[in-house]
Amino acid sequence: MRWPEVKAAAAQPGSTLVWPWGAIEQHGPQLPLDTDGLFAERVVEAVLERLPAERPIWRLPLQAIGFSPEHLGFAGTLSLPAGLLIDQICAVGEQLGALGFSRLVLINGHGGQIALLQTAARQLRCRCPRLAVLPCFLWSGAAGIGALIPEPERSQGLHAGLAETSLMLHLAPERVGEERPCDGQLPAPPPPGWDLEGALPAAWLTTDLSRSGVVGDATGATAELGERLFQALVAGWTERLECLLVSDWPPGTPVDGGHSAECG
Hints:
There is one protein chain. By secondary structure, the chain is α/β, with parallel strands linked by helices. It has a single domain (about 10-245), classed as 3-Layer(aba) Sandwich (Rossmann fold), CATH 3.40.50. Helices cover about 40% and strands about 10% of the residues. It has nine helices and six strands, in the order H-E-H-E-H-E-H-E-H-H-H-E-H-E-H. Strand 1 (about 15-20), helix 2 and strand 2 (about 55-60) form a beta-alpha-beta unit. The protein is globular and about 55 Å long.
């Protein structure tokens, strides 16, 4: 886009920007370092192609490097400090708000930075009240995903397991190695009510659990399953973004009944 096009886009009612987020981190011996970013970007691209052309929605370039300290025990992982990423989101978001955009949707493909992006989004909203900020996790945006993954992989396949390996086999099979590890089993069950992730999580490191970098079971991965996962993700995010674009969600600043506060 050229700058006059950006200015006109920002001025449209409900103007929305999608910012895909990934990570550069190990994904076992079979998947590439940029797995999370590739997934987020491919889903966003497919969704924008499906949405009606008149909808006021555009995308920012992929943020390729994220917050991945849990994977630093494996070669190739790059992780930026949490504070730097929060400052980056706030700096970019304040400029977008100053341009006049109404919404910023973060589509994040890396589970290890969900809480970080939520924190950054709240901080950005405080600095720029006129900009609605929606931090979203890629795998939480589609109904029916869980039904495609059998237990115990559905709850225990946290990284580079059945789902991610299958999705990459569908999207970029030439980038998938031959190995199909099953790794990352807990050495002992957690106390009742506790878990690695959930209501009472632990700040786990991949090296606590896995020698291969996989936390899950990739042995049954197929391109066919990957295609079903991709279609479910695209359909789910198309529906969610379409509903957002034709709504007034989220609520505006209560003090004046709308998004009229200035950034800065």
